[in-house]
Amino acid sequence: MLRPHRRAELNLRFLREIGHDGQNSRTYVAHDAQLNAEIVIKEIAKARLDVGRFFAEAQALYASAHSNVVQVHYACEDDDSIYVAMPFYRRGSLKDVLSQRFLSVREIVTLGCQVLAGLQHVHSNRLVHFDIKPDNVLLSDRGEALLSDFGLASPIGARGFAELDVPYIRILPPEGFSGYEFPRTFDIYQVGVLLYRMCCGNEEFDRQFGRFVTSTAAGDRFDRNAFRVAVVNGQFPDKRMFPAHIPERMRSVVRKCLETDPAARFGSALDAMNALGLVEGAHLDWVYSKPPGCQRWEKNVEGTKYEFELSDAGGTTCYRISSTGARRRVTPGCTDGMTDRQVRTFLGDT
């Protein structure tokens, strides 16, 4: 690691915290007085961090820019923390989007491939990211996915493994409960969790995770052992729980990423990206929502809007709305009930 010849003061004013799921870091929008600009500052506690190794990794990423990896402006430190400065993207993170709405399959494919392209670049620089989650996928001004936050990233050694110091439990793969050195397939599992959350929504993911948390008078109690058993046995996340518009080919990509045996996952981010890129068809542009009492899908085809609803009682309705606002029933989509397979077929999964 390069040592500076001079030390200088940096004048930053933290404006607001923008959320974090990490255990040893916080993220802020800050005003850089020197640049007279708003930037993002990641504040990382030194207490459980190899500072020299962290700066070496930051330098490697800084030296090899990629369009799907957030570029580091600079990194600095004080007695307690490391500060990493990055561009401020006003669109926020993928977590912000998932907290507001579901993604279409086309959006999942596009953003997923962009994340995997960035991850392939990270792996080619002999790093394992170790912290791939919606918070750490930022959206550029053009809406492109940018992989961020390398606070847990670790170099890959001669044997093909990287050391993980402080794992994030919610996205920990099965092998993470019994070791401390892992190959690139650790990241592939976390991509699977990310894609699952993009398909099913954060609310469903949080609901499933909530089964392992019990609220008591003394506070929330997390049943780590029950969670470990569920992850090791492939029961969390529940790979049967997909909205009907998610096609089988997409489900297969997610399941392969989430294989409990690391050797059964995609061997590289590039392999996963190629598989994800093959997802295509009539289901790509359905926009899914869950208003009270039903599930709803909407899409627009050359100015004509389609609305399909599945009520909680099982009945379905479908309407075609022209550019003039005229509504017409789509007879095959109006029934007393459809099976899950029939709904999927109607939405375009052949």
From TrEMBL:
It comes from the Bacteria. This is Protein kinase domain-containing protein. It holds the Pfam family Pkinase. Residues 12-287 form the Protein kinase domain. Gene3D superfamilies: Transferase(Phosphotransferase) domain 1. InterPro entries: Kinase-like_dom_sf, Prot_kinase_dom, Ser/Thr_kinase_AS. One of its GO terms (molecular function) is ATP binding.
